[in-house]
Amino acid sequence: DGRDLALGTSGRTLSVSDFPHLAGLKGRTLLTSDGTTILGVDDKAGIAEIMGALERVLRDGTPHGALRIAFTPDEEIGTGAGNFDVEYFDADVAYTMDGDAEGEIQYQNFNACEADFEVRGVSVHPGSAKGIMVNAMQVCCDINNMLPTLEAPRYTEGYEGFYHLLEIHGDESAGGMSYIVRDFDAASFECRKQTLRHIAKVMNERWGEGTVTLRIKDEYQNMESVIEGCMFTIDNAKLACERAGVVPRVTPIRGGTDGCQLSFRGLPCPNLGTGGDGYHGPYEHATVEGINAATDVVVELIKVYAGA
Question: pTM value?
Answer without folding.
Answer: 0.84
